């Protein structure tokens, strides 16, 4: 079997993956291209008002707030949840999982290869986002953000999608019910984003470190480039989630 499950997963999802790549990159380009007009609107505000609202009119500040701060991480989370929930739980509910496991394939290898396909997809989506933003960087007046800084944020975007994909895949491997997976992933995603957004406002700054969104964007890669500690934490989190799901999957009865 070697990498048969991995290649088959990518082949079966190729149309959907192309759609995710083009759609996500297109959304990123659309929002990023409005920076010149947004900068003019911001400049027209009184300085006192800008200061009170903590408005950051720089290219990095705009990208962090409007492009990488909400819409793209939301899309990454949805991609991870949808792909991860199908990887095991979707096939188990449809009754196809027993046919896959009838081949000389261990459960561990099945989960790991499905996860590798998910991670490849997340990486491909983020790569196209990076290339798309580079293509409009000059015309959108984003040259103050270097290509390396954009790449650092896009790598974190891929890792964010992988973390939520790992959570969904692990949850599906552990329980085998896609509704449970989607509901659980959505709940954790909302909780994680809320913690990241409001922890500082309620005087619980340290709580934000438990949110993957903090490690995704809290280190401001668009200003400072790669933050290797945050990148490592995101990667390690995904690995732990997949490992736990795989451990449970290898030990439970499968009702197909």
From TrEMBL:
Q: Which UniProt keywords apply?
A: Membrane, Transmembrane, Transmembrane helix
Transmembrane intervals: 17-37, 57-79, 115-136, 156-175, 182-204, 231-250
Source domain of life? Bacteria
Name assigned to this protein: ABC transporter permease subunit
Q: Which organism is it from?
A: Streptomyces longisporoflavus
Taxonomically, what lineage is the organism? Bacteria, Bacillati, Actinomycetota, Actinomycetes, Kitasatosporales
């Amino acid at each position: 079997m070697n990498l048969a499950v991995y290649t088959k997963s990518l082949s079966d999802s190729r149309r959907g993956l192309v759609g995710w790549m083009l759609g996500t990159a297109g959304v990123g380009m659309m929002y990023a291209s409005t920076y010149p007009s947004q900068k003019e609107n911001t400049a027209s505000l009184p300085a006192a008002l800008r200061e009170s609202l903590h408005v950051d009119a720089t290219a990095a500040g705009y990208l962090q707030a409007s492009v990488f701060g909400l819409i793209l991480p939301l899309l990454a989370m949805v991609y991870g949840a949808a792909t991860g929930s199908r990887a095991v739980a979707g096939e188990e509910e449809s009754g196809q999982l027993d046919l896959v496991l009838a081949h000389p394939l261990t459960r561990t290898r099945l989960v790991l290869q499905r996860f590798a396909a998910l991670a490849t997809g997340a990486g491909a989506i983020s790569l196209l986002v990076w290339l798309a933003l580079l293509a409009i960087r000059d015309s959108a007046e984003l040259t103050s953000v270097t290509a390396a800084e954009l790449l650092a944020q896009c790598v974190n975007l891929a890792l964010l999608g992988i973390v939520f994909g790992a959570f969904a895949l692990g949850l599906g491997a552990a329980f085998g019910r896609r509704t449970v997976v989607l509901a659980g992933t959505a709940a954790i995603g909302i909780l994680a984003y809320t913690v990241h957004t409001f922890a500082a406002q309620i005087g619980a700054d340290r709580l934000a470190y438990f949110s993957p969104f903090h490690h995704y964007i809290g280190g401001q890669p668009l200003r400072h480039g790669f933050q290797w500690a945050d990148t490592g934490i995101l990667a390690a989190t995904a690995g732990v989630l997949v490992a736990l799901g795989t451990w449970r999957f290898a030990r439970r009865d499968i009702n197909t």
